[in-house]
Design brief:
Elements lengths: L1 H21 L11 H4 L4 H16 L29 H5 L3 H4 L25 H12 L11 H4 L23 H6 L3 H7 L3 E2 L29 H6 L14 H5 L9 E2 L11 H4 L41 H4 L17
Helix pairs in contact: 1-3
Bound molecules: heme C (HEC) (10 copies).
């Protein structure tokens, strides 16, 4: 690793003077897929690429307080790939900056991504355009108008490009990036019952597309339920006897991020059920000892021990076990 980095630096320095003369004022944005249009050998591409970069790497390298060359260890930094961005593809031509310090002051590069650096950060749209030049479409089809775009985020608010590992795309690390702005989610995922995000087995982006979505809440799929079904296919049905709130929205009963009531429940039954159904069968009084309610016909009152006594009736799930839906011909009441 060390030697290859040294080599890159050496090559960059060697090619720097040539490059400054040859490409002083022009940058080209190699489009993704350009390799199909104009075949270039990996070696040639690599040479040209390093020559371009040398305009900047003659001053910015691993010896600086802000090392930048780890970019070449990322999938985006493959110099043998003609589509690979040069420093100027992202930071702009930056001709004034390239002139170096004048009277002890150096003009900023055209696009500055990092907050808290010595120059004010560029506008969100400038920063995003620098990336969208190559990365529009696909997952980012709905970036324009998405909650993140509208609220002034740009790509570099989540992505690190001068780092061998991009935390926001790495299991076990991604959530720490999201938590910097979504602190309440951290609290949710610390609760007793949660999707295994803190354990590094799942990511926020298994459910959300942070770039934009046709669905609500940046859901990966068009609806919340479709997103859940992509992993919990058994809850999809179709069921002979459906439970309306399940078909409507899983979050009627579940908190997708975390809850102290397992499994991810918004309230403990019977309270959960009673938010929509009044009381434990009270209206028909069918649990009253010796009271013949409408349920007698189905043999309900024959169940030993009246459910209303001792709070058994509260255990809705003891009987209504098929709360997500039933395929049993006699399962209209979701109890089989
Ligand atoms: C002549 C030397 C020189 C060249 C060439 C040069 N820079 Fe700089 N650059 C500097 C100096 C000096 C600073 C001030 C901050 C520092 O010391 O890092 C700076 C700052 C920056 C910053 C802001 C860092 C911050 O903390 O905000 C960026 C981004 C940057 N340069 C990118 C580039 C890019 C991209 C190129 C090539 C197009 C380039 N530089 C070429 C000398 C140079
Ligand atoms: C793919 C786009 C992209 C490319 C290519 C790129 N940069 Fe950057 N650069 C960024 C972003 C985004 C940041 C903000 C910090 C980060 O994301 O790591 C940044 C930050 C910087 C900084 C400030 C570093 C700091 O720690 O404050 C310097 C200096 C810099 N880039 C120089 C360069 C040089 C030199 C090259 C070419 C070798 C280059 N950049 C190539 C996107 C890019
Ligand atoms: C000049 C074109 C270009 C520009 C500009 C550009 N990229 Fe890329 N990016 C690429 C290429 C090429 C790849 C590798 C894609 C591949 O292998 O399919 C890539 C890959 C990526 C990847 C995925 C890496 C992986 O693991 O597959 C991320 C994330 C990324 N870029 C973010 C950014 C961000 C953020 C910016 C702006 C700061 C940016 N890119 C600007 C060309 C570009
Ligand atoms: C809110 C955080 C966030 C923002 C803002 C963001 N991204 Fe991403 N990006 C992610 C996450 C998380 C992933 C990993 C998604 C996955 O694994 O499915 C990702 C993946 C990617 C990838 C690799 C997968 C692919 O689609 O090829 C690219 C490229 C990329 N982002 C580019 C961008 C660009 C360009 C922007 C700005 C327009 C941007 N991102 C803005 C969080 C973000
Ligand atoms: C199992 C799927 C799933 C995972 C994993 C997930 N979310 Fe969500 N998220 C949802 C659903 C569904 C909603 C909308 C309904 C709700 O909030 O109950 C949502 C809503 C949100 C909202 C908007 C909430 C509001 O009230 O406005 C934010 C912010 C959010 N999620 C962030 C995150 C972050 C950050 C992570 C990772 C740490 C994450 N989510 C992981 C499914 C998920
Ligand atoms: C730099 C701050 C920042 C980061 C980092 C960030 N977000 Fe957001 N996010 C926001 C803002 C601002 C909003 C819009 C206001 C709100 O709903 O809170 C938002 C909204 C959301 C929403 C709700 C969308 C809606 O329709 O209500 C979700 C879901 C979300 N973010 C998920 C994520 C995920 C997942 C990550 C990490 C991959 C992430 N965010 C990283 C700032 C951020
Ligand atoms: C990317 C796959 C994936 C998606 C999408 C997904 N889940 Fe999960 N879900 C899991 C995994 C993995 C577990 C943990 C299973 C385990 O621990 O054995 C889980 C567990 C659960 C549990 C049981 C939790 C417990 O404590 O036992 C519930 C309830 C749940 N998910 C509901 C949902 C809902 C609602 C949605 C949609 C908002 C959803 N899931 C989306 C993968 C997913
Ligand atoms: C009417 C409330 C309600 C709705 C709506 C609901 N669930 Fe559940 N879910 C429950 C209850 C109650 C349990 C606990 C069942 C138990 O303990 O036997 C549960 C358990 C689960 C479990 C873990 C146990 C298992 O059966 O695998 C998963 C996963 C799950 N639900 C996914 C979903 C998905 C996906 C949706 C949306 C399609 C959904 N739920 C909609 C009430 C609901
Ligand atoms: C968000 C509201 C809501 C919640 C929470 C809810 N239900 Fe339902 N439930 C309904 C609706 C709506 C129907 C169908 C309409 C109807 O016939 O009353 C239904 C139907 C039923 C039925 C079948 C009754 C019939 O006449 O078809 C049973 C049994 C049932 N629910 C049990 C439960 C249990 C047990 C829970 C708690 C785990 C629960 N429900 C939670 C709204 C809800
Ligand atoms: C001891 C078993 C048992 C328990 C406990 C139980 N149920 Fe039932 N429930 C049934 C049976 C059996 C039926 C069929 C009704 C009939 O026979 O007329 C039924 C019917 C229903 C119906 C549809 C009839 C109606 O009145 O609309 C709903 C809704 C319902 N139960 C909700 C609940 C809720 C909510 C709880 C918990 C507070 C609960 N049940 C507890 C066995 C039970």
């Amino acid at each position: 690793m060390k030697t290859s980095r040294k080599f890159i630096m050496a090559a960059a320095v060697l090619l720097g003077s040539w490059s400054l003369a040859a490409h002083a004022d022009k940058i080209e944005l190699p489009a993704l897929g350009a390799s199909q249009q104009a075949p270039v050998s990996a070696a040639q591409s690599s040479r040209e690429h390093l020559a371009q970069d040398a305009k900047c790497t003659r001053c910015h390298d691993e010896n600086e307080s802000k090392p930048v060359l780890a970019f070449f260890q990322t999938p985006m930094g493959v110099t043998g790939d003609p589509r690979t961005p040069t420093c100027q593809s992202c930071h702009g031509a930056s001709l004034a900056h390239l002139r170096g310090p004048v009277n002890g002051k150096i003009a900023p590069p055209d696009v500055v991504f990092n907050k808290g650096g010595m120059y004010p950060e560029s506008s969100a749209s400038q920063r995003a355009s620098a990336c969208l030049a190559c990365h529009s479409g696909t997952q980012r089809t709905h970036w324009e108008g998405s909650p993140h775009q509208v609220n002034g985020l740009a790509c570099s608010d989540c992505h690190k490009v001068h780092s061998a590992v991009d935390p926001v795309r790495t299991k076990g690390m991604q959530q720490t990036v999201c938590y910097t702005c979504h602190k309440d989610r951290r609290a949710d995922f610390m609760k007793l019952s949660h999707h295994p995000v803190p354990e590094g087995k799942m990511m926020c982006s298994d459910c959300h597309n942070p770039h934009g979505s046709v669905g609500p809440f940046l859901m990966k799929k068009a609806t919340i339920n479709e997103t859940c079904w992509s992993c919990h296919a058994d809850k999809r049905g179709p069921f002979l006897w459906e439970h309306e709130p399940v078909v409507e929205n899983c979050t009627n009963c579940h908190n997708p991020h975390g809850s102290n009531i397992a499994p991810l429940l918004k309230a403990r039954p019977p309270f959960l059920c009673e938010e929509c159904h009044d009381g434990p069968h009270q209206s028909a009084n069918m649990f009253g000892p010796g009271v013949a309610g409408p349920s007698t016909a189905t043999g309900f009152s024959a169940i030993p021990g009246s459910p209303a006594d001792g709070g058994v009736g509260e255990g809705c799930l003891n009987c209504h076990i098929m709360v997500h839906g039933s395929n049993n011909p006699a399962g209209a009441y979701l109890h089989r």
